[in-house]
Recover the amino acids of this structure.
């Protein structure tokens, strides 16, 4: 389980990521002039800000009336002119600094090797220069909160290096701190914009500080003019810590210097080996919960192509089957989630936490019409529930800011989130017509429900999940309106305005439009939310207030329009049959009910086949899928029990939009991490699926083993995957057939195991394991 290379990274797309949830870095591995590009999760442009327009709500009824009257263009323009956020774009995630290491005389190097060891979360660079063998180890430690770099060489006294810090931010400067370390201090400030979907900013922003210290075995070390100059050392440990003044989305008056001192105190006077062992132990406690082997090859040994550099394996994936690369990619996704999303930190953003651009594409924000949700698809099934928590914290903040938006824009209870948010927790509609989509909060709270189902803890449901679900549902209850006489779905409750992210339709008069009412995805999201609220009320035995709320939900559910099948046999994306075979849009928002939702299953055969038809039509119009759309399609085809097509989409993902460092890119973006996480979740979905049924407050869980196994993965095993109901599952197969499975029950819930046409009942008590032999 290593990413391996025989040359340094020449570009950012070739550098290797490390992170501890708060700090992240991209390691290039150059021999003479190394650059380590560093991010800190809270360094954003801007400052606390309310994006709401106080008078926006006065135009809502006019917008709705125009849409019902088929004057969609006027409705969209009115919304864009009068109801978008102020400013219309959000702020952007920023690079923190670069750490430069200059090794005099190392330009001519041989026997070069660079790797990222996923089992230890350590990046290593080795090479020979001037007759000496040099080793460089780098990791980002969660326990210490620092980036640690170890430089060693065989001959004593052979290491000399000049270390310095720099920043793209104009208001920054590096200096020595008088005690042998160097400091980089600065502040984000005025920005001219907008660019790349990010706003400009007038006035001061966040203060930040980076600190670099060196601990040397022998030799000399001098800090002068912002440079650490070390000569003749036998070994060197460099420690970097970075911090900002961010306290929360309303307060940026923290002291970054004091924060850095606390982190640096954790490493003071401690030997390198102790820091490394502490880091590895902390990381492995999460990573080693799941193991995977695909195609019969041991990914830690490998032969032939498995020992080729990783970038060559990616280039060859179309011509050469490489199941072990799929296994590596799966574990790399789990590695990235551990590295970018730890409890108490910010949620993983559009680039996880790795970004070198001052104006990153889409601001490297949290896009809530699929991208941030996709980031967390592997959290539960991949046995990393703790890594899900930063998303829950983001939701809690948005419940506050989104409540103000719900009232100001829609006169509604509860909270609303539109298609994007930033560090300052914007909930208002922003950007372009894509922002006129008030379903972000409705989708986000489904993650709280998912966490509860994987860990059926009633305390979590009562105190964390259900309150947020109830607030999202209250917004929907107030937002939906009755369709008037003379229009489709007259007398039913619909969303208006409605939008199917991020797609357009052509109506019967060939007008290209975005807005409508009652888009399919809206209805699927709302049905999921309402039905899950009803289950929660039953499980929690809700009080009188909840019973009144329950009545509201039941009445609304009764009046929600049904899913529809169109003239091509496809699941309709809009209220009318406007789907087009030539549609090439990467979004397939109307497929939410198939995955990650579970409304569309084999128990609904007509809609199930209509979803299959929709996917076939959408893919037929383009040669292949790339980036996060390909990742989504892996899981969608897996839900359709189509392992071969799911595997084809995985190959598309690897071959067409995976960088040499295995991070996914989506031109013109250098990297967009949602595809990595979506790909990991899709691979899990090919091997294991689970869903739940509730009746009279009791749950029944169905676990499907190897539901979408492709023929190329003839044998293999996986252990530690989680299933709804609180189960950990291990699966072994050979010759394309199940050999056996183990299901460990954590909560003592009943479940049914299914493999093809066979099924077995599992009633293992909590803490015990059920062994299944087909």
């Amino acid at each position: 389980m290593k990413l391996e290379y025989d040359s340094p990274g020449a570009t950012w797309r070739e550098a290797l990521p490390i992170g501890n949830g708060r700090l992240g870095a991209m390691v290039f591995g150059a021999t003479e002039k190394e650059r380590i590009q560093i991010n800190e999760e809270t360094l954003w442009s801007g400052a606390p800000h309310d994006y709401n327009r106080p008078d926006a709500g006065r135009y809502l009824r006019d917008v709705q009336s125009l849409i019902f009257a088929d004057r969609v263009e006027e409705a969209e323009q009115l919304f864009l002119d009068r109801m978008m956020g102020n400013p219309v774009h959000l702020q952007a995630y920023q690079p923190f600094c670069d750490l430069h290491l200059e090794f005099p005389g190392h330009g001519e190097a041989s026997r070069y090797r660079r790797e990222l060891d996923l089992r230890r979360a350590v990046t290593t660079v080795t090479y020979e220069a001037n007759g000496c063998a040099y080793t460089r180890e780098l990791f980002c430690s969660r326990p210490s909160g620092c980036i640690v770099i170890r430089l060693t060489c065989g001959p004593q006294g052979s290491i000399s290096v000049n270390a310095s810090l720099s920043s793209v931010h104009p208001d920054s400067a590096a200096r020595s701190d008088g005690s042998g370390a160097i400091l980089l201090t600065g502040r984000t400030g005025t920005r001219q914009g907008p660019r790349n979907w990010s706003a400009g900013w007038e006035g001061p922003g966040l203060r930040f500080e980076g600190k670099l210290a060196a601990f040397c075995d022998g030799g000399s070390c001098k800090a002068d003019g912002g440079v650490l100059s070390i000569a003749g050392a036998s070994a060197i440990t460099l420690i970097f810590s970075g911090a900002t003044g961010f306290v929360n989305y309303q307060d940026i008056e923290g002291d970054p210097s004091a924060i850095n001192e606390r982190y640096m105190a954790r490493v003071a006077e401690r030997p390198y080996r102790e820091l490394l062992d502490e880091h590895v132990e902390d990381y492995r406690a999460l990573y080693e919960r799941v193991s995977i082997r695909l195609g019969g090859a041991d990914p830690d040994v490998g032969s032939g192509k498995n020992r080729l550099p990783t970038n060559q394996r990616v280039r060859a994936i179309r011509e050469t089957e490489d199941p072990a690369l799929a296994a590596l990619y799966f574990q790399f996704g789990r590695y990235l989630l551990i590295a970018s999303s730890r409890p108490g930190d910010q949620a993983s953003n559009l680039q996880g936490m790795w970004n070198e651009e001052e104006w990153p594409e889409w601001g490297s924000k949290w896009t809530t019409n699929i991208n941030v949700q996709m980031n967390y698809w592997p959290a539960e099934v991949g046995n990393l529930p703790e890594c899900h928590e930063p998303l829950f914290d983001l939701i809690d903040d948005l419940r506050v800011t989104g409540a103000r938006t719900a009232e100001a824009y829609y006169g509604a209870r509860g909270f609303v989130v539109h298609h994007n948010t930033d560090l300052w927790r914007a909930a208002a509609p922003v950007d372009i017509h894509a922002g006129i989509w008030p379903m972000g909060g409705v989708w986000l709270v489904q993650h709280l429900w998912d966490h509860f189902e994987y860990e059926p803890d009633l305390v979590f449901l009562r105190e964390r999940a259900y309150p947020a679900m109830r607030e999202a549902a209250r917004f929907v209850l107030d937002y939906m309106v009755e369709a008037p006489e003379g229009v489709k779905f007259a007398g039913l409750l619909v969303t208006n305005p409605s939008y199917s992210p991020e797609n357009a339709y052509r109506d019967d008069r060939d007008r290209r439009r975005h807005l409508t009412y009652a888009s399919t995805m809206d209805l699927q999201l709302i049905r999921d939310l309402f039905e899950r609220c009803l289950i929660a009320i039953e499980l929690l035995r809700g009080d009188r207030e909840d019973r009144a709320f329950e009545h509201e939900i039941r009445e609304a559910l009764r009046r929600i329009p049904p899913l529809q099948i169109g003239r091509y046999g496809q699941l309709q994306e809009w209220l009318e049959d406007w789907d087009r075979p030539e549609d090439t849009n990467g979004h397939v928002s109307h497929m939410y009910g198939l995955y990650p939702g579970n409304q569309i299953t084999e128990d609904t055969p007509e809609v199930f086949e209509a979803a299959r038809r929709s996917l076939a039509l959408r893919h037929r119009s383009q040669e292949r899928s790339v980036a996060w759309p390909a990742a989504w399609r892996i899981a969608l085809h897996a839900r359709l029990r189509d392992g071969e097509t799911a595997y084809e989409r995985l190959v598309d993902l690897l071959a067409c939009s995976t960088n040499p460092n295995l991070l996914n890119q989506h031109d013109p973006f250098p990297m967009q991490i949602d595809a990595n996480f979506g790909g990991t979740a899709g691979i899990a979905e090919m091997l294991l699926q689970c869903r739940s049924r509730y009746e009279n407050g009791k749950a029944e869980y169905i676990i499907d083993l190897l539901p979408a196994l492709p023929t190329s993965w003839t044998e293999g095993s996986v252990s530690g995957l989680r299933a709804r109901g609180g189960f950990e599952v291990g699966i072994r197969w050979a010759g394309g057939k199940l050999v056996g499975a183990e299901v460990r029950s954590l909560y003592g819930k009943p479940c049914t195991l299914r493999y093809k046409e066979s099924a077995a009942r599992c009633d293992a008590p909590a803490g015990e394991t059920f062994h299944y032999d087909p």
Summary: The mean pLDDT is 95. DSSP finds 17 helices and 31 strands in the chain.
